[in-house]
């Protein structure tokens, strides 16, 4: 698989043109499980094929149990300067429910080691809406997260994927079904908690100290071009989207033949408008009338008309030259975006 990934990097060398890379992100699962040899092979190939901007943000997603001191020292030597650690919870009951391999103690140790070894940009993932956590326990979880010198937090409501252990437990009655009102209430508590700490809620699921917003993820929401490598990876160059096949073996077989196994969708003006609305509304920057006008008068008029009722309902707020979600509206972001999209 690693050989296929480094081969695809070389095959995709022209996708982004001559632009130097402003960010690199090892994600999409558990890249921290890779040995030093393989991480080094991938990173060296990136350096050989692309120009990398000075001070580029280089992030690695990691499981807490993978982040030994030795691994962290190696990551620093590879110029990885940002970690996204999948803590999910500091409570044993929650981690068992989510079938996580690490313990609360390992989560604490991974963060402690990262800061002791000089990592300054660290994101921590949390999950809310768990049937094993009361509101009080969720608040304790948040407090523990913010007690670390992290500068970024990603938080997601628990979702039940079919064919998982949790889905099986709920069907059997071992755990209660997911209560959406609990998730909504705990999301509200998180927004209030982060605001009181002076953090920016810059995207529905993401919070950061001012100026510490993730450059890589922000590029997605601001419709900047990006290149994804590996099975299921998505890429975007402003004119089209492409996504690689998900099956590992099919992916590797195609790459071995010098073929990138991907599908491509050319983006028409309606698709570009809809994507701008969908991504823009998720952020604190919202949707600007100036940018909406670039899609044409018909799109701007449609947006203004549909947004007017949502503004009256307190879901949206118009300020300066843009429309943003209110705190109330953030609970219904997907539905609001859908209402503002052209069909």
Q: What is the terminal separation in angstroms?
A: 40 Å
Q: What is the count of distinct domains?
A: 2
- Mean pLDDT across all amino acids: 94
CATH class term of the largest domain:
Alpha Beta
Examine the coordinates and then state which fold CATH places here, giving the name of the CATH topology of the largest domain: pyruvate-formate lyase- activating enzyme
Q: Indicate the percent of residues in helices.
A: 40-55%
Main sheet, how many strands, which sense, barrel? Answer: 7 strands, mixed
Count of strand segments: 13
What is the chain-wise order of helices and strands? Answer: HEHEHEHHEHEHHEEHEEHEHEHHEEH
The gyration radius over C-alpha positions equals: 21 Å
Indicate the overall shape.
globular
Describe the structure.
The chain is α/β, with parallel strands linked by helices and 343 residues long. It has 14 helices and 13 strands. It folds into two domains: 20-220, pyruvate-formate lyase- activating enzyme (Alpha-Beta Horseshoe), CATH 3.80.30; 269-343, Arc Repressor Mutant, subunit A, CATH 1.10.10.920. Helix content is 43%, strand content 20%. It has a seven-stranded mixed sheet. The chain has a three-stranded antiparallel sheet with strand order 8-9-10, with no helix packed on it. α1 crosses α10 (248-256) and α6 packs parallel to α8 (180-196). The longest helix is centred in the middle third of the chain and has 17 residues, at 180-196.
